Structure formats: structure tokens, C-alpha cells
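ok so I'm stuck.
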Amino acid sequence: MLCAGIVGLPNVGKSTLFNAVTKTRKAMAANYRFCTIEPNQGVVTVPDARLDVLSKISGSQKIIPSVFEFVDIAGLVKGASQGEGLGNQFLGHIREVDAIVQVVRCFENADIEHVMDTVDPIRDIEVINTELVLADLDSIQKRRTRQQKLAKSGDKKAQAEIALLDRLEPHLNEGKHAFTLEVTPEEAAIRKTLFLLTAKPTLFACNVAEEDLANPDGNPWVQKVRDYVAHHHGTRAVVVSAEIESELVTLPPEERDEYLEALGIPKGADTGTGTLIKEAYTLLGLRSYLTTGEKETRAWTIHAGDKAPVAAGVIHSDFEKSFISAEVTAYEDLVSCGSFVRARELGKTRTEGKEYGVQDGDVIEFKTFL
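replied:
not stuck anymore, here's the structure
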């Protein structure tokens, strides 16, 4: 199962957010540095309103959403790449995840210590960025030393790797992530083998105070973070209030709605974690196709670009080998038609073969030899 790691400076709300998105109390959330040492892992359910709609059309007995994993990693500090704050250990934990969610503090609270004494999310991002880049530069230098002898002897793979390292090093020295370097498919395959920290796709989470959640655009730090990460990292920032989210998971639905309405948040509105989870799911390159019937309505997790036989194999490995065809109806078409029968009558259902690239939201019935 692919996983996204929650990272950031100490005391920015990482563990509180982890507890909220996983709906657990696995991670200790305390007002002191390094209250998290070993990573906490938890399975996250991906919110998908399409499942409720399809279950009503099919009269399903149960709904099964997509899931993936979140990992809460201890806070990094300045100097982590040189071992400060158990930095090498924590950097190793980041190396094991598939994508990064970096939490940045966008709220003032005199009762919660800030490791840098003042709140400045851009500075905090740059501190984390610097440590990841320095760690990657060290990895590149070691890798080059190992590969130079082979490259000089004429080894083509080693030569291709050295050529990529020669492009990566100045890119990183400019403070840029390896993920943002334009590479060929062949270079991308090599980059993957380097296990660089900055090669991991990254999403930013602006952790705001409860009074800012209803109107995050009124928080000047939020806009600064959005602009900064779009320009420097080519990615997005979502807004959450970790403290509110951790409270919401303990409340029954009625009390939850009352609590949110008191904060000025409309009933049924996304409070932030739903968006964060869906963005992280997409960041990992994951997509969902859907199946529905009287027994269950279910979201199945695939990788973007997977062909129909591979998608069938997610249900059962034998289905990939025995794949014949896929009967596909786009979710929007099925809902507008109201039933599979009507969708077929209107020509909205089509039969696809082995080369069909499954799309997010496809409602599929597979035909196999089994």
C-alpha cells in the first residue's frame, strides 16, 4: 500500500492532523519537541460522494471506499541533515514514504511553543526544504563516487546515471526539488533508483486557527504559502485546522454539524481533511474506478494510466489473466440515466478491450473467462 508521510517542524500540528485524518489517537500530540520518535502509521479512508449516489441506484447493502496509508514522522529541525534533533533517523523515515504532506503553522498561539520562536511559514518551508536538499546532495555525491569507476570503464547504465547526477546537482544547489527537474522517461526511471527525498511529490497543508477555517483567505499566511509553493514547488497548498479536525472525529454527526455551524461553516462543507486526503491520494498517482450492485458499491484503487486488465486484477489476480472485456459507463452518465438499463438504451455504456486506460470514476463490470 502506498503511503504519504506527514512532515514539518516540531509543534506545527503534524500529530494532531494525523490523528484527525486516520480517526485514531495513535500519535501523541504534545507541546514539546520530538514527542514523536518512531513513525505512526494509519490507514485513511478516501472520501467519495459518488459511492453514496451509486449505492442508492443499486440498492447496495454496503459501501467500501478506497484506502491508503498516512505516516506521521517526527519533526525536523535546522541542521537535520547533519544529525541535529536525531535528523538522520527522521530523514530515513521520510525516505521510506511515497509522497510528502508538509504541514506549516499558520496560526499564533502563545501557549504552543514554536521551534523558531516566531510564526513564519515561508521560513519554515525553506528550513525543511534546505535539509532535504542537503541530504540529497550528500546522497548524490556518494552515488557519483560509487559509479564513476564503472562509467569510466564504459558501463552505459553508469554513464547515464552520472549524466543525470550532473544535471541534478546544480538544480538542487539552486534550492529546487529533484521532482521539479524536467527529465526523460529514461531519466525518470534512473531518478527513482536514487531514492532522493526531494524527488517525492509534495503537498502543503496550512494549519490554521479555528477562527480562520471559515474564511482562510483572510489569513495572510495562507495566501503567501499558496503563492510560494506554486512558484517554487509547482504544487498546491490546502487549508486545515488540525485542532478542530481532531475534535470533530470524537463527535456524533448532529453535534459535529452544530459545532461547525457555530464556527460559520455550512452543514456538509468540507472542513479540510477531506480535501487533504483526496489531494494526497491523487499526489500518489492513485485513482479509483467503481463497481456497484445489490451486494456492495465499492471504489477500487489503481494507478493513473492502468489498463483495463490491470484494473481487473485489483479485484482478483486471476481476472487480469482471464480478461475478455470491460463494460464501462462514466459515473456522470450513469447518474444522469438513473440505471444501467437506461444507460445501455441511450448508448452510454461501451465495451472496452485490453488497451483501454481506465479513468477515475469509471463504473465497470469486467468480463472474464472465469
